[in-house]
Amino acid sequence: MNDPTVEITGLGRRFGRLRALDDVSFSLDDGITGLLGPNGAGKTTLLRCLATVETPDSGRLRILRRDPGSVSERTEIRRRLGYLPQEPGFYPNFTAYDFLDYLAVLKELVDDGQRRREVRRVLDAVDLGDRAMTKIRKLSGGMRRRLALAQALLADPQLLILDEPTTGLDPGQRLRFRDLVSRLGEDRTVLLSTHQTEDVAALCERVIVMDRGRVLFDGPPRGLAETARGSVWLAEQRPAGGGVTWRNADGRYRTIGDPPAGAELADPTIEDGYLLLVGDAALADVA
Amino acid sequence: MTAATPDTVRPVRRHGGLRAAARVRVLARIEGRRLLARPTVLAGAGLSLLTMVTLTRTTAPVLNRDDTTASAALLVLAAATLLATNAAALRSRRRATDELLASMPTPPRVRTLASLCSVAGVVALAGLLGGAFLLWRLAADPVTAPDPFELLTGPALVALGGCLGVALARWAPSVTVAPVVVVGLAALEFSVNLLIGGSEYGGRVKWLAPFVGQHGVARELLIRPTGWHLAYLVALVAVLGCVALLRHPATRPTIATAGAAVLVLLLAGGAQLRPLDPAQDPNALAAELTAAAAQDCEQRDDVTYCALPGYEPWVDRWAATVEPVLARLPERARPRPLTVRQDFLGTRLESLADHGGPGTAAEPTHSEVRPGLWRGRNAGEGAYQFGLALGVAALAVGLSPDGALSPADALPGQVGEGLQACTPAGQARSVVALWLAGQTSERSAEYLRNEVERQGGTTAPAIGTPAPEIYFARPAAHPIGALNFGGWEAAVAVQLLRQAPDHIAGLVDRHWDTLSDPATTTDEALALLGADGPAPGRPPADVSDPSSTEAGSSGTDWRLVACP
After folding, report:
1. Which of A35, A88, A220, B267 has its CA 20 to 30 A from that of A28?
2. CA of A79 to nearest chain B CA: how many angstroms apart?
């Protein structure tokens, strides 16, 4: 069996007294993995470590079978890495083409013809081919997000790390994004951090749930949903007391936790499993 | 969004050094293009060009002065380049792309190196601007020759600005730092070139500043270590580039380059600071160059024209101005012998005097007119022709330097205690001299008309003459630089210029002895020359009795007398 693309063992990272990552361990192979967790769960810190822009304090990390602690191996990792940060930043006075062209050079595409084709390819891949010569300051938020995704695709990376890539995309763009990422995941490793459980359900073969720097769940999406089996209820009346409750479109109240009076069991979803796992933190996010 | 197509490109793998060089080259090209398109750089280039043109538009090309002017003007582009490269090098910080760029295989060092190399485009632009300016000047009958080192100084200043901008971005990554540095450098240049400019011969330490001007002193009298200064600037560029690169982990080439650059910097910087050899003393040079034997003199009719080396093409221009004056003079009144001898007037020789020098070359004789090292052109041509012609005309009507202040002393604020000056105001011969000068050419006449119109109401002369005066641009024609003519006489001369020159010349010929007599008044000149139309307004003060003791503008007592 081949070595995993990413191998994380006992990873830790602190910022002062805050423990952003606490003994995180898992490995990743080809395919799409979703990373769920409330704000402050440590998702972004973990992705930054995987993108080699953050150095962990403890633990062992191997990416693409290389040690990011070594300068030369880190460079090799970066050559094979596509990273979409949560806030990628743009150069407003660059055109979409120029921005990608610049980043393509930083990805070592120095041949002009090759680089031109590659920039065109990724622009088309995110449906921005007709906006290539538009200044970034004139692009909408969704277009900028797609442009950021396009840069992550430059030079055909073996490992794609996407931090909340669907933020700002309209429903149609999200569907096309899913199509693109699902194809990309066929022959490479994609780690996708998101707040959208629907994206995870639609795309990921595996989901990792984090909270307070620790991994709470690591398994298939269906497994995450199953963790909530027996804890999801539908009731006609809003139940009194605690727990996570919301009103469905059919007017019934869905509750995760202890059964309200007169409630009946419901089939759990990924979202139910996620909410059951992270509980209060997820509610705080909603608030 | 569509799926990735199979023709995906993978990075080309090559040897590390080659790959880095290729990335630097491509990035530098991209950054260079963007730099050239930045409004700051475009505005800087435009302003530099405008400065070059503005500073030289009214003077004829003197290439050993124009080369420095080009470099001075390129300081604007250098400042703009500093700001632009700083902004470009801070782009990732300003736009929050540091995290994204940190995930790329290209290290920040390569980006810094590319930013430094991108300055090459603006340096080339500076070279083009300087070259275009030089071509423009070459097309207008230039004299002397430019110093190639001086010409290269401008582009080197631009390179310096660009590299400083990158170094600042790496070591002081804030958008407020570069503008502050530009202001500081501007203050330094202002101090070096304007405040301590008069101390041209007092010390060489100013050569450590990026740009040192000529301070209005003729290049012929200056020992400018232009070659060493260029080497100093180039070394400074290299040092700043290395400083920028040393923000990242040091590499052997960077350390080696930095070491070599510092060595050259010390060597060239030290060479610039070497004190002048006594043989290179500007006063000695001035005397040597203005000595009759050193000048290339040419006899034309009764006039001898002596030009300083390199200025020989101006003899034709001088003759074209002097001959029309002589042609309108009665044969008996033509000054003989007459020599037009070029010297260093108008080049702030007073600064030489400040440092123990003679202040000027050999004292002028009664038969010499001395043009300086500049010649008017375009809008400045009339003033120049008028000044030179007035010098000849003044000699013809008997206005001699006797009793007049030397040109340097005549400058407001420099009148010495107990000095004596003379004024031809109120004398008929000054009307004749002004008319003779004005009729030399249409431009000369136009200049006189404009000055009368502009200064006609002057009532507060700078050197305290008792009557309104008219000041002509320092004509660089000794001794007239010391004389300020009466405004009324100038107005009368303008009125005479409206009449047929042959008619006035005939009257001047007929009444020459009277008109050239110091005792003949302007009123009498009006009667003799029959000025057409009403006489111009008489000034409020009585200029016929100018002898009095007055306080000069400097507060020093001095005596004003009628010119003998």
Report:
1. A88
2. 5
Long-range pairs of A43-49 with CB within 8 A, sequence gap ≥ 24: A43/A163, A43/A193, A43/A210, A44/A86, A44/A163, A44/A193, A45/A13, A45/A20, A45/A21, A45/A213, A46/A11, A46/A21, A46/A210, A47/A83, A47/A161, A47/A163, A47/A191, A47/A193, A48/A85, A48/B99, A49/A11, A49/A13, A49/A21
Q: Residue B500: what pLDDT?
A: 93
Nearest to B30 among A105, A111, A118 (CB): A105
pLDDT of residue A192: 94
Read off the pLDDT of each residue in A41-62 and give the average, rounded to a whole number. 96
pLDDT band with cut points at 50, 70 and 90 for residue B537:
low
Cβ-based neighbours of B399, under 8 Å, separated by 6 or more: B424, B429, B430, B433, B479, B480, B483, B563
In DSSP terms, A27 is beta-bridged to: A7
The residue range of the domain holding B470 is 283-562
What is the ipTM metric for this complex? 0.91
Judge whether residue B440 has pLDDT over 50.
Answer: yes
Residues A19 and A152 in one domain: no
Q: Which of B4, B10, B99 sits opposite A85 (nearest CB)?
A: B99
Residues A167 and A141 placed together within one structural domain of the fold: no
Which residue from A minimizes the CA distance to B5? A121
Same domain, residue pair A194 and A212:
yes
What percentage of chain B exceeds 90 in pLDDT?
Answer: 49
CB contact under 8 A, B1 and A125: yes
Mutate to test the interface with A, among B18, B100, B109, B111 (most CBs of A within 10 A): B100
- Judged by average pLDDT, the poorest of A65-74, A256-265, B192-201, B540-549 is B540-549
Residue B353 has a pLDDT of: 40
Q: Do A38 and A76 belong together in one domain?
A: yes
**Whether A183 and B105 lie within 8 Å, measured CB to CB:** no
Q: What is the pTM of this model?
A: 0.85
Separation in Å, CA of B82 to nearest CA in chain A: 19
Q: What is the number of domains present in chain B? A: 2
In terms of CA atoms, which chain B residue is nearest residue A162? B100
Q: Per the structure, how many domains does chain A have?
A: 3
| Chain B residues near residue A81 by CB distance under 8 angstroms | 103
Is residue B343 within 8 A of residue B269, CB to CB? The reply is no
Give contacts of B104 with chain A, Cβ < 8 Å: 78, 103, 106-107
Highest averaged pLDDT of the listed ranges A56-65, A235-244, B190-199, B483-492? A56-65
Rg (CA), chain A: 21
Q: Which residues of B touch A (CB under 8 A)?
A: 1-5, 7-12, 19, 22-23, 25-27, 30, 91-92, 95-107, 111
